[in-house]
## 1
Amino acid sequence: MTPASRPAVLSVDVRDTRVTVSGRLDTASIRALRLVLMAMLEDDSTGPITVDLDDVDFVDGAAFRVLLRTSRELRRNGGNLVIACSDPDVVRLCTITGLDSASDLLG
């Protein structure tokens, strides 16, 4: 499977409340991330929750909406969302979408 057609694969380490995402994070795959984050919010809505985007090949607007909603929910309950990503293109998109101001961005 080529990277362009590879779906997002999620790896969740609940102990560390860290979600590692790899592959394409787009409309077709965002449901899986949304379900994982919703379950984590139900378990501990005060966070922090870290989403590691270092191995993501592509991120679309749907993914940023899910991350922004998660960040808002966590902040409402006194927690925070941490986005870990060293890809300058994804970091730039975090800035453009406002995710950098709604969460902690680790580049």
## 2
Amino acid sequence: MVATPRLERTECEVWPKLSPTLGRVPPRGGGDAVLLARLSAGDDRALRIVYDQHADMVYGLAQRVTRDDHRAREITQEVFTYLWSQPQRVHLERGSLRAFLGVVTHHRAVDEVRRVTRRSHAESKAHQGDAVDDVASLFALVDVTLDNGPDAQSGLRPAALARAFEQRTAGLALDRPEPRSPLAAFTETTEDFRALLASLSAQDWRAVPRPSHEHVGALVAHVAGMEQLTRDWLAGPVPDPATVADHLTATAPMVAELADQPGPAVAALWYELAQEAAAAAAAAPVGHSLVAHDLPTDTDGLLVLGTFELWAHMDDVRAANCD
């Protein structure tokens, strides 16, 4: 069974791209782990402790990026409300709680700068050039207490806590995520990816996600090619293994075919192929064996691989538009 995480583009989470050492401050005596368990159980005292430990860093980082006290106060409230609402998003094997709060703060602050300075791409880039935009600099700030001045956070603590408790009642434990079948996980993740693509602007579609793809449109064309292969592996005609052994080479014809298509058209074709792949999986015999690329697997295994690929490329799309 696969538990499907619900993703939001505005969070711009980039945990998989972080260095394994940057910002990692192991909790003493299980401090972070205990606090997260208490947050999940609805212990409001745990949120007060976390706020008192990290609010200076969160507010100071937000203020440094936005250069605006009002926006920094708003972002501080959003960050602690987000933590209180979804503490399960914190994975201590990837970094400390402080590091997580720093990443969320940074991306929300940069998103706010972009929103305010959307008047022109050049102006937005110029403004962000002075922001803390690389991971190393971000964690250099995360690891110190920023000097915000004596009155910078006056009244902010009760406002932030009140806002968090409005979102989720104190004492209310979070339900554990329900397991999903591989098909359900793939279907739900497809809808998440579709929603993310629908939120992209024309400029977002031209952003560069990673060296192996020219832009986001080409990446989504690659994903469309993967959905086509998934459909064919399940329902036929089965592709010649010699032509699809390499992950990227196998989808190159689809990428070339869609090279001149606008982003929304690429997204529409990808979604159509994803639905066909899901339908083929639903109709496949139980335990149906196959070879995907050069990997022996079955229907469920192929769906799990497809789900993980969608998760990874959602991060790629968000990261391309958060740099």
